[in-house]
Amino acid sequence: MNATLNPTSDEPQPFTIDNEDKANWFLRKIANHEAEIERVKSQANSIIRGLEVDKERLMFLFENQLKDLCREMLSGNGNRSKSIKFLQGSCSFRTVPEGFKLNNEMTALAFAKTTHPEAVKLIERVDWEAYKQLAQSAYQNHGKLIPGVDHVPARESFLLKFPKLVESDQND
Question: What is the mean pLDDT of residues 117-144?
């Protein structure tokens, strides 16, 4: 929708939403943009998944060959370097010290609670529902705010909502 001519002058008037047809035009444009955003996100996620699968396949096929080449190149240069730089990246060997890795936190927590409670960490958090009741009571009874709370007055919000579109509806 473009600007329209003013009946009393030849100058175009800016577009304004002043009737139901124009409101529907605007909402259709916004809904189409929302649908396009979702379509592009979905397409991008599909492309990323494909690249990740291809990367895993290439690593499976060629990672060991690259490691062997790098070991050979490093052994021939006579220095103590553990890295080789290529045009598209670098390859490095590093010794990772032994250690422990948590593989099931719930199982470990249950065991620690019963046998080694000193290995259990308690994390303090505010119970927001209980604290909100304290804040409401203090504000209603004394007109004061308790620490860590702001009073947010009632306000009107304006939302645009669109139904989920099926594939054939997105071609508008």
Answer: 94
